[in-house]
Amino acid sequence: MRQFYKGGFLPEMTRREAALILGIRESAAEAKVKEAHRRIMIANHPDAGGSSYIATKVNEAKDMLVGKKRSGSSMF
């Protein structure tokens, strides 16, 4: 049976945590990241009764792994 991320989010997301949330490797190709994101969002989208907090974390994980957000970076 497949194991899923057991939860408990870090204060600031890391690439490792992002990969765990999406159920893929940190080094996964962008297409694999997007496919995993889509699959999880279909199951957890707020419009379909899912949690908006979880959806936010799933989106953050995708952004982290496709390079739109850097781990440990600051806006200043």
Automatic annotation (TrEMBL):
Q: Which residues cross the membrane?
A: none
Give GO cellular component annotations, separated by semicolons.
PAM complex, Tim23 associated import motor
The way this protein sits in the membrane is described as: Single-pass membrane protein
Q: Which UniProt keywords apply?
A: Membrane, Mitochondrion, Mitochondrion inner membrane, Transmembrane, Transmembrane helix
**Keyword Transmembrane part of the UniProt annotation:** yes
Q: Where is the J domain?
A: 17-76
The molecular function GO annotations come to:
ATPase activator activity
Q: What's a single GO BP term from this record?
A: protein import into mitochondrial matrix
The answer to keyword DNA repair applying to this record is no
Q: Which domain of life is it from?
A: Eukaryota
- Fill in the subunit field for this protein: Probable component of the PAM complex at least composed of a mitochondrial HSP70 protein, TIMM44 and TIMM14. The complex interacts with the TIMM23 component of the TIM17:23 complex.
Q: What does this protein do?
A: Component of the PAM complex, a complex required for the translocation of transit peptide-containing proteins from the inner membrane into the mitochondrial matrix in an ATP-dependent manner.
Mind telling me what this protein is named?
Mitochondrial import inner membrane translocase subunit TIM14
